[in-house]
Amino acid sequence: KAGVTQTPRYLIKTRGQQVTLSCSPISGHRSVSWYQQTPGQGLQFLFEYFSETQRNKGNFPGRFSGRQFSNSRSEMNVSTLELGDSALYLCASSGGGAADTQYFGPGTRLTVL
Amino acid sequence: AQTVTQSQPEMSVQEAETVTLSCTYDTSESDYYLFWYKQPPSRQMILVIRQEAYKQQNATENRFSVNFQKAAKSFSLKISDSQLGDAAMYFCAYRSAWSNYQLIWGAGTKLIIKP
């Protein structure tokens, strides 16, 4: 099976712009979770989608949003970018059950100038 | 709220030797899962090993094994016969079996392998 894929791998944006990141899960997986990784804050949970519904949400401002499509692919959007949004954004997929392991994609490195 | 603590920011080990990475966690739940993930310079987060809290037997995966002490809320990772390819950041993570399925992460330990 193909692994989790994320596009693009690198992005450079300026403050105030918006950005959309994409994640394609492992075939058959219905859950997609997003995490932000920064040197200062470490790994933080953004949100999780399961069968096109947001099931869980972390403590991030409303500028961060996401959605999931019927084929389980997920997108994450950040509006009105701030310098502090520069980070590695990781997507993970799983079957969606409590016992299911999350498998990660290679990440998208976002730089906000 | 659950927390995960990795008290060793950096560890080094000679190639072919054994190293143990520490992780402690805090939770009031009785049913949960614990994970060790590895993140090499390529940034891809790779699952190393997982442990179910209801299992008393420690998980093993080839050269990787854990020492799970539920009462002490401790979950250490032992890497035997260290190889150059083991050099990476290692993250300990917790996930509830019942509520929010998010992973709660430790700060990570950078493992350096000396040839």
What is the number of strand segments of chain B?
12
Helix content of chain A: under 10%
Enumerate how many helices of chain B there are, as a single number: 0
If you compute it from the alpha carbons, what radius of gyration of chain B comes out, rounded to the nearest whole angstrom? 14 Å
Reading the helices and strands of chain A in chain order gives EEEEEEEEEEE
SS elements, strand count of chain A: 11
Query: In percent terms, what proportion of residues of chain B is strand?
Result: over 45%
Percent strand of chain A = over 45%
What is the CA–CA distance across the termini of chain B? 41 Å
**Chain oligomer state:** heterodimer
The termini of chain A sit apart by 37 Å
The parts of chain A where pLDDT drops under 50 for at least 5 residues are none
- Please tell me how large the radius of gyration of chain A is: 13 Å
- Most extensive chain-chain interface: A-B, 25 and 25 residues
Quick structural summary:
The complex is a heterodimer of chains A (113) and B (115). By secondary structure, chain A is mostly beta strands.
